[in-house]
Amino acid sequence: MKMIFNHIKEDFMRLKDNSIVLVVVLGVSLIPCLYAWFNIAASWDPYTETAGIRVAIANEDEGYTPAFVPARVNIGEKIKLNLGVNDQMDWTFTDKDEAIAGVKSGKYYAAIVIPADFSQKMFSFLSPEAEAPSLLYYGNEKKNAIAPKVTGKGAGAVTDMVKETFTKTLYATSFDSILSFSDQVRASNEDDVLATLRERLQKTSNSLSGQISTLRAFQSLARSSSNVMATADGFMEISSDTVTGAMHDLKSGRENLKQTEASLAPLNDALKQSVDQNLDYLDRLSSDVDDAFVRADDNMAQSIAATESLVQTLTQDVEDKRHVQDKLTEFNEALPAPLTGLDAANAKIERSIAFEESMISTLRTATEKKNLTREEADALQEKFASLQKKNRENLEALRGDFSNGVMGRFARVKSDLDETRGNLEDAWQSADAATAQVAALSADIQNDLGRLNANMDASVQLLDNAKRSVDGLYSRTMEVENAPESEKLDRLLAQDSDTVSRFLSRPVQTAVHRVYPVENYGSAMAAFYSTLSLWVGAVIQVALIHVETPDSYRKKYGKFKPYQTYFGRLGLFLFISFVQSSLIALGDLYFLGIQCPHPFHFLLAGWVSGFIFTILIYTLTISFGDIGKALCVVLMVVQVAGSGGTFPIDVAPPFFRRIYPFLPFVHSMNAMKEAIGGFYKNTFWRELLLLQNYLAGALLLGLVLRKPVMRLNTAFSEKLEDTKIM
């Protein structure tokens, strides 16, 4: 130990006695400080100092007038207005040609061109040919490595601004329309508005129900048609005998129709005669009734007797008509297919019976009331005359309908049967030639019917969904009047459109919770540059200061053993390292003013890191000489790239990610970051402890493994000196 202390004492005595050496040592101590301070100061807060980056803006937007916006919208102009008050960058407004030329020449870092159809494309989402608009971004990537990233972020900010501006414009216009509608609703009776809305929804629902029923009927028809077409081929193969039999059946049907017509003719004559008699009777009845009502003033008894006689006559006529009804019904039921004309005739007879029963009721009213006034008699007479007139019109219609409708239809059916028989004979002659064509057509039709059925199924489903939606809206209108939501809607509509559109354009805000906040970029980079400066300081030491013991020391104190030489000169290196790390840390804290809530721990991390780096570099140099110095530089370069000081190690190439945990820089930086950003558990002490692994390795190399290579290192140094160059 005495030899080690003698070595250290001799080193410091020579520093004291030689002012030039003292100045050199002072310079060795200051150079790493300057390296750290200049780099930290230069990168103090670059991302908040982007106001000097010139970015050209060229607006060629011509604007657009959407169908639902009552004004022309120019998104490009809105962008210019917003950028005019934005100081994040030096926005320069110019034309497209000047902007692009300025980017190429380096006048501008980047340029953003707003195309002429920008606003139009922004609203193209309303049309089937929707096309997203684009901002044209031109960046000069040659001028600076980081500037394109910064200007790219600026372009992204402009894009976000466009989205927000467009959304605000769209929502503001829509909300103004809603407010206008709301004002109209409030100006009118709200209950009437809701009632009208419910009525229209009900009509829509009924209409949809009708359309669904129609489609389902068509589906049934299509399925039936498909079945018919499936048997069409078999029908085309019926024999000639079958066709002949069909024509025979037509002939028999015609004979049966002729017989039916003959049977119906007397009934027609009888009905016509009965109607004519009724019409004559109605004429006489009108005269008798008038006489009865006239005699009501003179001779009430005679008037009543005449009226009762009329009632009996009308009653008998009603019974006769019911008898005719029964005959017509019996005849119609006996037919193979009932005739609608006979049903219509029966309906008119029933209407005539109803008129006559009303006439009977009127006459009975007159007979039951003994003392009729003139006014009452006139009213009853007028009512009776009206019923009689309607009955006459009904009977005349009955006579015409039966003669022209029923009997005329028999004649037409008979003629149609004759024509059908002739057509059937003609069709049979060409049926053989058409059989093949019909078979092919049948297959096509069946395929079409299949597709039609599928489409109608989908249509029915869509209409069902639409009807459910309409019914749901109808139900909501029944609830909305007293619902709490309506009060909320009223409060919403009380807001102005700017407030609502501003919220809807940016409905989500990010609540930032900064974990271990760091005030500025310089403070964040202080750990990296300070660690790098400590390594640089140690490299400068071995470059300027000899690591071997001078011969004068041996003459004065005797021979030094290898470990005594190792520790003897190491004392001077550690002293200079202490000065370097102290100046670097104190300058960071109090000259630059970095953020550091734990300054002592920052100093401690600097001291420990400086000692470890110095011992490691000193050991490599004393063990391998100039080769060791070169290894120190290589290690520095590798650690600058692979320690994650400037970029996250996760974005580095795989090689650097693999060696990352084994680099001294990593643990030194992590310890300093704990002091700068704040402690997490025992991370600070753990990182300092991990640094001791390099101390153990350096001591193992310097005290044990150095001996075998000492002779090789001496020979290598002699060869270099023989060149007189190195």
Automatic annotation (TrEMBL):
<dbReference type="Pfam" id="PF12698">
    <property type="entry name" value="ABC2_membrane_3"/>
</dbReference>
<keyword id="KW-1133">Transmembrane helix</keyword>
<feature type="transmembrane region" description="Helical">
    <location>
        <begin position="688"/>
        <end position="705"/>
    </location>
</feature>
<feature type="transmembrane region" description="Helical">
    <location>
        <begin position="630"/>
        <end position="649"/>
    </location>
</feature>
<dbReference type="InterPro" id="IPR051328">
    <property type="entry name" value="T7SS_ABC-Transporter"/>
</dbReference>
<feature type="transmembrane region" description="Helical">
    <location>
        <begin position="20"/>
        <end position="38"/>
    </location>
</feature>
<dbReference type="InterPro" id="IPR017500">
    <property type="entry name" value="Phage_infect_YhgE_N"/>
</dbReference>
<feature type="domain" description="ABC-2 type transporter transmembrane">
    <location>
        <begin position="517"/>
        <end position="695"/>
    </location>
</feature>
<protein>
    <submittedName>
        <fullName>YhgE/Pip C-terminal domain</fullName>
    </submittedName>
</protein>
<feature type="coiled-coil region">
    <location>
        <begin position="363"/>
        <end position="397"/>
    </location>
</feature>
<dbReference type="InterPro" id="IPR013525">
    <property type="entry name" value="ABC2_TM"/>
</dbReference>
<keyword id="KW-0472">Membrane</keyword>
<dbReference type="GO" id="GO:0016020">
    <property type="term" value="C:membrane"/>
</dbReference>
<feature type="transmembrane region" description="Helical">
    <location>
        <begin position="599"/>
        <end position="618"/>
    </location>
</feature>
<feature type="transmembrane region" description="Helical">
    <location>
        <begin position="526"/>
        <end position="545"/>
    </location>
</feature>
<keyword id="KW-0175">Coiled coil</keyword>
<dbReference type="InterPro" id="IPR017501">
    <property type="entry name" value="Phage_infect_YhgE_C"/>
</dbReference>
<dbReference type="GO" id="GO:0140359">
    <property type="term" value="F:ABC-type transporter activity"/>
</dbReference>
<keyword id="KW-0812">Transmembrane</keyword>
<feature type="transmembrane region" description="Helical">
    <location>
        <begin position="566"/>
        <end position="587"/>
    </location>
</feature>
